[in-house]
Amino acid sequence: MSLSPGCGPWRPSNRRGAGEPAATTIRPAPERDLLVFLLRAQLDGLGQPTERQRARMLARGDLGTDLLTTGDTEAFLAWAERIRPLLGADGTAVPDALRELYPKVLDDTRLGPGSLLRRMAADPGPDVASVVRRNAADAVRRALSSGPQAASVRDVVQDWWRDQAPATGITVRDDMRQEVFRPLPIHLGALDETLKWCGDAAEAADTRIDIELTVQDGTLHVWLGLDRVDVRAACDDFACLLSHTFPYTDCLAGDDHVLLRLHGDLETDPLHPLAAAGMDAYASGPKDRRRLIEQVADGPAEAQDKQPYS
Q1: Does residue 211 surpass a pLDDT of 80?
Q2: Is the pTM here over 0.90, yes or no?
Protein backbone atom coordinates (compact mmCIF):
# COMPACT_ATOMS: atom_id res chain seq x y z
CA MET A 1 0.00 0.00 0.00
CA SER A 2 1.58 3.22 -1.15
CA LEU A 3 1.38 6.76 0.20
CA SER A 4 2.93 8.07 -3.00
CA PRO A 5 0.65 9.73 -5.58
CA GLY A 6 0.94 9.46 -9.34
CA CYS A 7 2.43 12.11 -11.59
CA GLY A 8 0.61 14.41 -13.98
CA PRO A 9 1.12 17.69 -15.87
CA TRP A 10 0.55 21.01 -14.14
CA ARG A 11 -2.01 23.34 -15.70
CA PRO A 12 -2.29 27.06 -14.86
CA SER A 13 -6.04 26.78 -14.23
CA ASN A 14 -5.36 24.40 -11.36
CA ARG A 15 -4.43 27.26 -9.08
CA ARG A 16 -7.96 28.61 -8.74
CA GLY A 17 -9.02 25.62 -6.72
CA ALA A 18 -5.94 25.57 -4.55
CA GLY A 19 -7.84 26.27 -1.36
CA GLU A 20 -10.66 23.82 -1.94
CA PRO A 21 -10.43 20.52 -0.07
CA ALA A 22 -10.46 17.31 -2.04
CA ALA A 23 -13.09 14.70 -1.37
CA THR A 24 -12.21 12.68 1.73
CA THR A 25 -12.46 8.90 1.66
CA ILE A 26 -13.64 7.26 4.88
CA ARG A 27 -11.34 4.29 5.47
CA PRO A 28 -11.88 1.30 7.78
CA ALA A 29 -9.99 1.63 11.06
CA PRO A 30 -7.42 -1.15 10.35
CA GLU A 31 -6.55 0.34 6.96
CA ARG A 32 -6.26 3.84 8.44
CA ASP A 33 -4.02 2.56 11.23
CA LEU A 34 -1.75 0.95 8.65
CA LEU A 35 -1.57 4.18 6.64
CA VAL A 36 -0.71 6.15 9.78
CA PHE A 37 2.03 3.63 10.58
CA LEU A 38 3.50 3.85 7.06
CA LEU A 39 3.38 7.64 7.07
CA ARG A 40 5.02 7.87 10.47
CA ALA A 41 7.71 5.44 9.35
CA GLN A 42 8.50 7.67 6.37
CA LEU A 43 8.55 10.83 8.47
CA ASP A 44 10.57 9.33 11.32
CA GLY A 45 13.14 8.08 8.84
CA LEU A 46 13.66 11.43 7.10
CA GLY A 47 16.48 12.84 9.22
CA GLN A 48 18.84 14.86 7.02
CA PRO A 49 18.86 12.95 3.71
CA THR A 50 21.77 13.39 1.32
CA GLU A 51 21.27 14.47 -2.26
CA ARG A 52 21.50 10.85 -3.40
CA GLN A 53 18.91 9.78 -0.84
CA ARG A 54 16.62 12.60 -1.91
CA ALA A 55 16.95 11.42 -5.51
CA ARG A 56 15.77 7.95 -4.49
CA MET A 57 12.85 9.47 -2.58
CA LEU A 58 11.90 11.48 -5.65
CA ALA A 59 12.10 8.42 -7.91
CA ARG A 60 9.70 6.60 -5.57
CA GLY A 61 7.41 9.61 -5.27
CA ASP A 62 7.74 9.75 -1.49
CA LEU A 63 5.65 12.34 0.36
CA GLY A 64 4.41 14.11 -2.76
CA THR A 65 7.89 15.18 -3.87
CA ASP A 66 7.37 14.03 -7.47
CA LEU A 67 4.24 16.16 -7.80
CA LEU A 68 5.99 19.32 -6.64
CA THR A 69 9.04 18.84 -8.85
CA THR A 70 6.89 18.27 -11.94
CA GLY A 71 4.73 21.29 -11.12
CA ASP A 72 1.52 19.30 -10.70
CA THR A 73 0.34 21.47 -7.84
CA GLU A 74 -3.31 20.43 -8.08
CA ALA A 75 -2.39 16.78 -7.53
CA PHE A 76 -0.07 17.73 -4.67
CA LEU A 77 -2.84 19.67 -2.93
CA ALA A 78 -5.24 16.75 -3.36
CA TRP A 79 -2.61 14.37 -1.95
CA ALA A 80 -1.94 16.68 1.01
CA GLU A 81 -5.66 16.87 1.75
CA ARG A 82 -5.85 13.07 1.87
CA ILE A 83 -2.78 12.81 4.08
CA ARG A 84 -3.71 15.62 6.49
CA PRO A 85 -5.94 13.52 8.79
CA LEU A 86 -3.11 11.02 9.22
CA LEU A 87 -0.79 13.63 10.73
CA GLY A 88 -2.79 14.01 13.94
CA ALA A 89 -6.10 15.04 15.38
CA ASP A 90 -5.92 18.55 13.94
CA GLY A 91 -3.76 17.82 10.91
CA THR A 92 -1.25 20.52 11.84
CA ALA A 93 1.70 18.44 13.04
CA VAL A 94 4.04 18.89 10.07
CA PRO A 95 7.55 17.75 11.08
CA ASP A 96 10.41 20.18 10.58
CA ALA A 97 12.24 17.53 8.55
CA LEU A 98 9.43 17.55 5.99
CA ARG A 99 9.38 21.36 5.84
CA GLU A 100 13.11 21.21 5.06
CA LEU A 101 12.78 18.38 2.56
CA TYR A 102 10.56 20.11 0.02
CA PRO A 103 12.85 23.10 -0.70
CA LYS A 104 15.88 20.80 -0.95
CA VAL A 105 14.21 18.43 -3.40
CA LEU A 106 13.08 21.36 -5.54
CA ASP A 107 16.61 22.82 -5.47
CA ASP A 108 17.97 19.44 -6.53
CA THR A 109 15.60 19.36 -9.50
CA ARG A 110 16.15 22.96 -10.56
CA LEU A 111 19.87 23.38 -9.78
CA GLY A 112 21.37 19.98 -8.98
CA PRO A 113 23.95 18.02 -11.01
CA GLY A 114 21.27 16.26 -13.05
CA SER A 115 19.17 19.37 -13.67
CA LEU A 116 18.58 20.83 -17.12
CA LEU A 117 20.27 24.03 -15.96
CA ARG A 118 23.50 22.25 -15.05
CA ARG A 119 23.49 20.16 -18.23
CA MET A 120 23.12 23.24 -20.42
CA ALA A 121 25.78 25.14 -18.49
CA ALA A 122 28.24 22.26 -18.89
CA ASP A 123 27.75 21.82 -22.64
CA PRO A 124 31.38 21.79 -23.86
CA GLY A 125 30.82 22.19 -27.59
CA PRO A 126 32.24 25.08 -29.64
CA ASP A 127 29.28 25.06 -32.04
CA VAL A 128 26.58 27.71 -32.17
CA ALA A 129 23.93 25.59 -30.43
CA SER A 130 26.26 24.85 -27.51
CA VAL A 131 27.09 28.52 -27.04
CA VAL A 132 23.39 29.38 -27.01
CA ARG A 133 22.71 26.73 -24.36
CA ARG A 134 25.53 27.95 -22.11
CA ASN A 135 24.37 31.54 -22.42
CA ALA A 136 20.79 30.47 -21.69
CA ALA A 137 22.01 28.82 -18.48
CA ASP A 138 23.82 32.02 -17.50
CA ALA A 139 20.68 34.11 -18.09
CA VAL A 140 18.46 31.81 -16.05
CA ARG A 141 21.02 31.74 -13.22
CA ARG A 142 21.01 35.53 -13.15
CA ALA A 143 17.22 35.55 -12.99
CA LEU A 144 17.29 33.09 -10.09
CA SER A 145 20.11 34.65 -8.12
CA SER A 146 19.22 38.30 -8.07
CA GLY A 147 16.35 39.55 -10.18
CA PRO A 148 15.78 43.18 -11.15
CA GLN A 149 15.69 46.01 -8.65
CA ALA A 150 12.10 46.86 -9.55
CA ALA A 151 8.79 46.68 -7.77
CA SER A 152 6.37 45.85 -10.58
CA VAL A 153 6.02 44.49 -14.10
CA ARG A 154 5.77 48.01 -15.54
CA ASP A 155 8.95 49.02 -13.68
CA VAL A 156 10.84 46.07 -15.19
CA VAL A 157 9.63 46.89 -18.70
CA GLN A 158 10.39 50.60 -18.31
CA ASP A 159 13.93 49.97 -17.04
CA TRP A 160 14.60 47.55 -19.90
CA TRP A 161 13.14 49.97 -22.48
CA ARG A 162 15.38 52.76 -21.19
CA ASP A 163 18.49 50.61 -21.70
CA GLN A 164 17.44 48.94 -24.97
CA ALA A 165 15.80 51.79 -26.90
CA PRO A 166 19.03 53.49 -28.05
CA ALA A 167 20.12 50.31 -29.88
CA THR A 168 16.81 48.82 -31.06
CA GLY A 169 13.47 50.06 -32.30
CA ILE A 170 10.86 49.14 -29.68
CA THR A 171 7.09 49.29 -29.56
CA VAL A 172 5.40 48.54 -26.24
CA ARG A 173 1.64 48.02 -26.09
CA ASP A 174 0.40 47.87 -22.51
CA ASP A 175 -3.08 46.36 -22.32
CA MET A 176 -2.83 45.37 -18.67
CA ARG A 177 -5.24 48.17 -17.70
CA GLN A 178 -6.78 47.50 -14.30
CA GLU A 179 -6.60 43.71 -14.50
CA VAL A 180 -5.28 42.13 -11.32
CA PHE A 181 -1.88 40.48 -11.60
CA ARG A 182 0.14 39.62 -8.51
CA PRO A 183 3.55 38.39 -9.62
CA LEU A 184 5.61 36.18 -7.41
CA PRO A 185 8.86 37.94 -6.48
CA ILE A 186 10.81 35.46 -8.61
CA HIS A 187 8.70 36.32 -11.67
CA LEU A 188 10.23 39.76 -12.06
CA GLY A 189 13.67 38.22 -12.59
CA ALA A 190 12.26 35.89 -15.25
CA LEU A 191 10.60 38.81 -17.04
CA ASP A 192 13.76 40.92 -16.89
CA GLU A 193 15.99 38.24 -18.41
CA THR A 194 13.42 37.38 -21.10
CA LEU A 195 13.29 41.00 -22.21
CA LYS A 196 17.08 41.22 -22.27
CA TRP A 197 17.45 37.94 -24.16
CA CYS A 198 14.98 38.95 -26.87
CA GLY A 199 16.33 42.49 -27.01
CA ASP A 200 19.85 41.17 -27.64
CA ALA A 201 18.47 38.92 -30.41
CA ALA A 202 16.78 41.89 -32.09
CA GLU A 203 19.89 44.06 -31.77
CA ALA A 204 22.14 41.37 -33.25
CA ALA A 205 19.80 40.99 -36.23
CA ASP A 206 19.51 44.78 -36.61
CA THR A 207 15.75 44.63 -36.33
CA ARG A 208 13.02 45.92 -34.07
CA ILE A 209 11.12 44.27 -31.22
CA ASP A 210 7.41 44.63 -30.47
CA ILE A 211 6.04 43.98 -26.96
CA GLU A 212 2.43 43.40 -25.92
CA LEU A 213 1.37 43.04 -22.28
CA THR A 214 -2.02 41.57 -21.37
CA VAL A 215 -3.53 39.98 -18.27
CA GLN A 216 -6.16 37.24 -18.45
CA ASP A 217 -7.50 35.33 -15.46
CA GLY A 218 -4.61 36.41 -13.28
CA THR A 219 -1.94 35.41 -15.83
CA LEU A 220 0.39 37.93 -17.44
CA HIS A 221 0.99 37.32 -21.16
CA VAL A 222 4.09 38.99 -22.61
CA TRP A 223 4.25 38.69 -26.41
CA LEU A 224 7.61 39.64 -27.92
CA GLY A 225 7.58 39.95 -31.71
CA LEU A 226 10.93 39.52 -33.46
CA ASP A 227 11.25 40.23 -37.18
CA ARG A 228 14.07 38.74 -39.30
CA VAL A 229 15.29 36.60 -36.38
CA ASP A 230 15.54 32.81 -36.34
CA VAL A 231 13.54 32.77 -33.12
CA ARG A 232 13.60 29.03 -32.55
CA ALA A 233 17.39 28.81 -32.93
CA ALA A 234 17.99 31.90 -30.81
CA CYS A 235 15.37 31.48 -28.10
CA ASP A 236 14.07 27.90 -27.85
CA ASP A 237 16.70 26.66 -25.37
CA PHE A 238 16.28 29.73 -23.19
CA ALA A 239 12.49 29.39 -23.25
CA CYS A 240 12.62 25.70 -22.39
CA LEU A 241 15.04 26.21 -19.51
CA LEU A 242 13.09 29.13 -18.06
CA SER A 243 9.86 27.11 -18.12
CA HIS A 244 11.56 24.11 -16.53
CA THR A 245 13.28 26.06 -13.74
CA PHE A 246 10.78 28.73 -12.66
CA PRO A 247 7.49 28.10 -10.85
CA TYR A 248 4.24 29.08 -12.53
CA THR A 249 6.09 30.10 -15.68
CA ASP A 250 5.63 29.13 -19.34
CA CYS A 251 7.91 30.45 -22.08
CA LEU A 252 7.37 29.41 -25.69
CA ALA A 253 9.38 30.23 -28.82
CA GLY A 254 7.36 30.51 -32.04
CA ASP A 255 8.40 31.25 -35.61
CA ASP A 256 8.46 35.02 -35.18
CA HIS A 257 7.86 35.63 -31.47
CA VAL A 258 8.42 34.56 -27.88
CA LEU A 259 5.47 34.24 -25.51
CA LEU A 260 6.10 34.48 -21.77
CA ARG A 261 3.23 33.57 -19.44
CA LEU A 262 3.53 34.26 -15.72
CA HIS A 263 0.76 32.75 -13.63
CA GLY A 264 0.21 35.14 -10.75
CA ASP A 265 -0.30 34.63 -7.04
CA LEU A 266 -4.07 34.19 -7.01
CA GLU A 267 -5.88 34.61 -3.72
CA THR A 268 -7.21 31.35 -2.32
CA ASP A 269 -8.51 30.12 0.99
CA PRO A 270 -5.74 29.58 3.57
CA LEU A 271 -3.91 26.31 3.08
CA HIS A 272 -3.47 23.83 5.88
CA PRO A 273 0.15 23.46 7.11
CA LEU A 274 1.12 20.39 5.05
CA ALA A 275 -0.14 21.92 1.81
CA ALA A 276 1.43 25.28 2.69
CA ALA A 277 4.82 23.66 3.36
CA GLY A 278 4.91 22.21 -0.15
CA MET A 279 3.39 25.16 -1.99
CA ASP A 280 5.61 27.74 -0.27
CA ALA A 281 8.65 25.71 -1.30
CA TYR A 282 7.41 25.36 -4.88
CA ALA A 283 6.71 29.07 -5.35
CA SER A 284 10.01 30.25 -3.87
CA GLY A 285 13.40 30.70 -5.46
CA PRO A 286 16.42 28.56 -4.63
CA LYS A 287 17.11 28.16 -0.92
CA ASP A 288 20.76 27.25 -1.39
CA ARG A 289 22.21 30.14 -3.38
CA ARG A 290 25.69 28.71 -2.94
CA ARG A 291 24.79 26.26 -5.68
CA LEU A 292 24.38 29.12 -8.14
CA ILE A 293 27.78 30.54 -7.17
CA GLU A 294 29.39 27.12 -7.53
CA GLN A 295 27.87 26.68 -10.97
CA VAL A 296 29.39 29.95 -12.16
CA ALA A 297 32.78 28.86 -10.86
CA ASP A 298 32.46 25.41 -12.47
CA GLY A 299 31.13 26.64 -15.81
CA PRO A 300 33.19 26.34 -19.01
CA ALA A 301 35.39 29.25 -20.01
CA GLU A 302 33.46 29.66 -23.26
CA ALA A 303 30.25 30.44 -21.37
CA GLN A 304 30.67 34.17 -21.89
CA ASP A 305 31.01 33.89 -25.68
CA LYS A 306 29.02 36.42 -27.63
CA GLN A 307 25.57 35.10 -28.40
CA PRO A 308 25.36 34.02 -32.07
CA TYR A 309 21.80 35.17 -32.67
CA SER A 310 22.01 36.16 -36.29
Answers
A1: yes
A2: no
